[in-house]
Amino acid sequence: MNNIPRNTGFTLTELLMLGVCCLLFVGCGGPKTKVVSGTVTVKGEKAQSGQVLFIPIEGTPGSNNAASIVDGEYRIEGRGGVMMGKYRVEVVAKKKTGRQVMQDTGFEKALADEYITISPPQYAGKQSPLTAEIDSSFDGRFDIDITP
User: Fold this and answer.
1) How far from each other are the two terminal CA atoms of the chain, in whole angstroms?
2) Which of 3, 24, 111, 142 is 20 to 30 A from 69 (CA-CA)?
3) What is the pLDDT along the chain (148 residues), one digit of tens a residue?
4) Beta bridge partners of 57
5) CA nearest to 78, candidates 58, 62, 89
6) How many structural domains are present in the chain?
7) CATH number for the domain harbouring residue 106
8) Residue 107 belongs to a domain
9) Does the residue 125 lie in any domain?
10) Alpha helices in 27-145 (DSSP H)
11) CA atoms within 13 A on the CB side of 138
């Protein structure tokens, strides 16, 4: 009989590889997200520019999610979209004035379209009355119509 001790344990690398394989086979079961998109209008007029921000409330995990408004539309899809839960929605909607103004680009000054904010200030901060609930039945569409 041979009395040579044998190492029957797994190395750290082998254990890590086994764990990764299990996650791939079973699924990681990470947080569920949804891509959110929609239109932004103020008094029936599409916002030409601006920003939409989804801020978690009431114990919803995760971070803020933001998207730019481009020609009245926004879309949040980074990191898989918005995690399921409740959100306060903040909006800054803008439109062009038709004028061009000199703006500093960081490198030089140049003419650029002038924009004005058309959404009421209360929609741009913690006092925003807009909320959204993202759950498994949510179809991903959240249109914002501000009618002050």
Assistant:
1) 90
2) 111
3) 555 555 555 565 554 555 554 444 444 555 699 999 999 999 999 999 999 999 999 999 889 999 999 999 999 998 889 999 999 999 999 999 999 999 887 888 999 999 999 999 999 999 999 999 999 999 999 999 998 7
4) 86
5) 62
6) 1
7) 2.60.40
8) yes
9) yes
10) none
11) 22
Amino acid type, 1 = M
Tokens of 24: 């791939």
Q: Is residue 77 part of a domain?
A: yes
Instruction: Give the per-residue pLDDT at 68.
Output: 98
Strands (E), the chain: 33-34, 36-42, 45-46, 49-57, 65-68, 73-76, 82-83, 85-104, 109-117, 131-134, 144-146
Residue 4 forms part of a structural domain: no
C-alpha to C-alpha distance for 35 and 27, rounded to whole angstroms: 20
Q: Quote the tokens at residue 54.
A: 């989804």
Domain coverage including residue 93? 31-146
pLDDT score recorded for residue 22: 45
Report residue 141 CA to chain centroid gap.
13
pLDDT of residue 31: 66
